[in-house]
Amino acid sequence: MPRYKLIIEYDGTPYHGWQRQDGFSSVQQALEEAIAEFARHPVTLFAAGRTDAGVHALGQVAHVDLEAEWRPGKVCEAANGLLKISGHPVSVLACETVAAEFDARFSAKRRHYRYVILNRQANLTVDAGRAWHVKKPLDIDAMDEATKVLVGHHDFTTFRSTDCQAKNPERTLDTLNVRLAADRGPGGREIEIVTSSRAFLHNQVRSMAGSLKLVGEGKWGPDDLRAALEAKDRKACGPVAPACGLYFERVDY
Fold this sequence. Notes:
Mean pLDDT: 97
CATH superfamily of the largest domain: Pseudouridine synthase I, catalytic domain, C-terminal subdomain
Shape: globular
Order of helices and strands: EHEEHEEEHEEEHHE
CATH class of the largest domain: Alpha Beta
Number of helices: 5
Distance between the termini: 22 Å
Structural class: alpha+beta
């Protein structure tokens, strides 16, 4: 059976996450149903990362095996047409045939995430559901300086969900930076937290973002962030940032 690699974009707002779950709408289900309809047989998609409810993706990667040979462009065209008809905010950006050994999850070398904060007093309108609304002015430089505490190989128990199923809480954070993405004048400041690693723990990025927000507000300093990390205790974590600001950006292979 030929194997296809898909690059996928989606608005995670209406979904209970990537993974198919009985009784809940998921991105995986939406895609599998669309592909199965034109392929005329049941399919299973395997993704590089299982995003949570409300989390968006700009470059999620998945692989799927089809019984017949399809032109990659036709796979995109057929899937997108059916997704549009069914009203799903999901799009297949690209498709290519890959070797049978390729695995969207296990072949991945690095995953990249972006967390978006809109820093302003006024309520969000067009950005509602697309960013974390933080009213108090944030010190971006202080946040970026504090990221150095978390970069490298650590036990990230403090920054993972109590429901995390990973057997090992240790991860190597390759990059973590805070930067001004755009100054919108009266529309506020768009702040990005960008990070990359071979693998992340459940809720790790949102947990780090919430703690860095405390630094930006002046409530924490680098030493407080270090103490939270070294505590290896979920209770030491700052507030978990909402899902709406998180984007699964891309995957390196």
